[in-house]
Design brief:
Strand content of chain B: under 5%
Largest sheet of chain B: none
Number of strands of chain B: 0
Number of strands of chain A: 0
Distance between the termini of chain A: 75 Å
Largest sheet of chain A: none
Distance between the termini of chain B: 79 Å
Oligomer: heterodimer
Number of helices of chain A: 13
Number of domains of chain A: 2
Chain lengths: 321, 100
């Protein structure tokens, strides 16, 4: 034994391996087999036990989930019905809000210069609400861009699936379809014209920035579908789109900030009201309508473009060519 | 009975039917189409309630653009599901090993 140790210390690796092998040889094969069977049985038993517990947990969780869902649904329905029951009936006067309503209805035309009292409210009395809505749309566009935009870095960084998907989308382009092309030729000009009419007529009749902008956005989507994003790029590329959105929002904020600042300090704001009923009337309502319409149209088109090919417009470098 | 009232009640019933049908439909494409028809019915109701501003917006956004966005999403999701290979059941695989 001491001889072996001596040789190990001297560095005989082969002997060392032999020694370690010898240590693992069982005392008797039957004992070893018994031990293995015991371990196997206990392992299988343990596993089935764990599975049973997991299944029971899953089941109870599902039950709890359903109960919570039903209870919260019922609570929500109850709260909504309770609120509806407290609203004054259709056509009746509500004494609590009567003051504001009367002011809007009776003096809205003189104070805002808009025939359409709704436009006067949302773009004059409550212009900050509309500003917030426009910014919400802008933020939504930013979020969609963050999630879906494919730039060169993303494509090289391993998002190859998206890259292939973009290629596939260009293969199945609808812009080669004759029917869609004809439809686009006929419909797009009238849709865009109607959208412009709705925006410009916002202070005199039904319409305004949001609805007109949505119509123009839909027209642009049809245009891009019928003639391809490369054609739409000539009018509304990504650079142009972001500049339009920024300028509109900045103009809205500054114009309305100016009016509120002068109004709060009792100063004249020198914005002509115009004759009610003319297109150039209503003071700031028409420019604000145009700004909101541009933001909405650009946002709608940007959504579609980002969903369709992961980029705004038909920029070839970003589509992986 | 007043024809206007009948028309209104029919539209309201249609609205509720659409809202329930969207939840009960298994096929997502059908659900999107029903959702768009819900918006179309709602657009008519806005006109009956004398708010054409909202009707225009509902027609453009609800029945038009949101439907398009839903359809685009469905197309993308469908492509992903086609591309994914069917996964093996890991439990069944291990069961075979222990049995042998």
């Amino acid at each position: 034994m001491s001889d072996k140790l001596q040789r190990i210390l001297e560095g005989d690796v082969e002997l060392l391996e032999n020694v370690s092998d010898a240590a693992e040889v069982p005392d008797s094969p039957r004992e070893e087999l018994k031990q293995q069977r015991k371990e196997f049985v206990s392992r299988v038993y343990q596993r089935s036990e764990m599975e049973r517990i997991a299944r029971a947990e899953k089941k109870s969780f599902l039950l709890l989930y359903r109960m919570v869902a039903v209870v919260s649904c019922l609570l929500l329905i109850g709260v909504l019905l309770f609120t509806v029951a407290n609203i004054p009936r259709y056509g009746e006067e509500n004494p609590r809000t009567l003051e504001v309503v009367r002011r809007y209805v009776e003096q809205g035309l003189q104070e805002t210069g808009a025939l359409n009292i709704v436009s006067g409210m949302i773009l004059d009395y409550r212009a900050f609400d509309t500003l917030g809505e426009s910014h919400v749309l802008f933020t939504a566009l930013l979020c969609v861009m963050t999630l879906l935009l494919l730039d060169k870095k993303t494509i090289r960084g391993g998002a190859l699936d998206d890259y292939h998907r973009v290629r596939q989308d260009t293969y199945f382009d609808l812009s080669k379809d004759a029917v869609i092309r004809l439809l686009g030729t006929v419909l797009v000009p009238s849709i865009l014209l109607f959208g412009v009419y709705v925006i410009l007529n916002g202070q005199n009749g039904p319409g305004g920035g949001f609805s007109g902008g949505a119509i123009i956005g839909a027209g642009f989507i049809l245009f891009a579908t019928a003639f391809g994003f490369e054609q739409a790029d000539r009018v509304l590329s990504r650079k142009v789109l972001s500049r339009i959105v920024f300028c509109s929002l900045a103009f809205y904020s500054f114009a309305k900030g100016y009016v509120f600042f002068t109004g709060a300090n009792g100063l004249e704001n020198h914005i002509p009201k115009g004759t009610p009923g003319a297109i150039l009337s209503g003071g700031l309502i028409l420019p604000l309508d145009i700004a909101v319409g541009l933001v909405v149209a650009c946002t709608m088109y940007g959504f579609y473009s980002l969903f369709k090919r992961g980029n705004i417009g038909g920029d070839r470098t970003s589509s992986g060519q | 009975m007043d024809l206007n009232l009948v028309f209104r009640v029919v539209l309201l019933i249609l609205l509720i039917l659409c809202a329930v049908a969207v939840n009960l439909t298994k096929d997502l494409l059908q659900a999107v189409v029903i959702f768009m028809s819900y918006s179309a019915v709602m657009c008519l109701l806005w006109i009956l309630m004398e708010s054409p501003d909202l009707a225009i917006t509902e027609a453009a956004v609800g029945a038009g653009i949101s439907g398009i966005l839903f359809l685009m999403t469905l197309k993308k999701v469908g492509q992903e599901e086609e591309n994914r290979e069917p996964e093996k059941d890991p439990d069944a695989d291990e069961g075979e090993d222990t049995g042998a």
